[in-house]
Amino acid sequence: MRKLLFLLSFILPPVVLIAQEKKTIRSEQNPFSEARFTYFKESLVLFNEYLDTKNGTYNTTNLRVLKPIGNRAWTIRFDAPLISTNSNTINKTGLGDISIGTSFIPYLTNKSGIASRIRVTSNSANNPKFGSGKWIISPAIFYGIYIGANKKILLISDLEYQYSFAGSKNRADIRTTVFESTLTYSFAKNWISSNVAFRYNETRQGFQNSTFVEFGRKLTPDSLFYIHPSLAFGNQKAYNYGIEFGVVILY
Predict the structure, then answer these.
(1) pLDDT class for 197, splitting at 50, 70, 90?
(2) Which residues on adjacent β-strands are paired with residue 225?
(3) Nearest partner of 83 among 102, 105, 98, 67, judged by Cα
(4) What average pLDDT does this structure show over 171-198?
(5) In this predicted model, what pLDDT tens digit does every residue of 15-35 receive, in sequence order?
């Protein structure tokens, strides 16, 4: 699985469409131009995620920057999380693991598209409880398709492998396969999404799955708001339940 995803991430970029055709499609409605999956505009995403765990609460406030480059088939992504924990014995706040990634769209039509991504997560947390203690590389491949001619229902699925290659020897290695699907129904200025993610942790030899339902709305043509409650399941689940809300600014 790991070798396949790495191979796809490096093979897919050379597979390109005719430049003028790609430019035309990117300017129209397509699977990677929707509200929560915008690849072709500069974006700022600020969100807060609250998780209830067996050891207390875990809160993440994250700033995400997405910047299309070149012919806008490429996108750079940067994430800077601020972590807060709250338990019976200790309350702390600090910087989490910063990550940077790049994605590429080798295939795109008005109805469907394929994207690949490589993301590197650094061992930058200023407290061991706020990060994995590892440097992680995560290759992924995405497939998006509209269901129906009216383009109101969008399905996006992705397969990702998270692999640690450096970091503290006292922390567990990261070996996690993730398969995730999101189904989105858009109407007027709103959308409703359902998501399920299956995560198999090879180190723990168990599943850390999750699911959520999301409600979102365009406040203006260039600003959006969303909220989604989530639920974890699996024999090695990372948390019990959570809620995330955020704003997306396009510029």
Answers:
(1) very high
(2) 217, 247
(3) 98
(4) 95
(5) 444 344 555 555 567 888 876
d(CA 103, CA 78): 12
Q: Contact 32/113 with Cβ under 8 angstroms?
A: yes
Count of CA atoms in the C-beta half-sphere (13 A) of 234? 21
pLDDT in tens, 74-105: 999 999 999 998 866 667 889 999 999 999 99
Question: Which single residue is written with the structure tokens 């490096």?
Answer: 10
Question: In 10 A of CB 40, how many CB atoms?
Answer: 19
C-beta of residue 98 within 8 angstroms of C-beta of residue 7: no
pLDDT attached to residue 35: 65
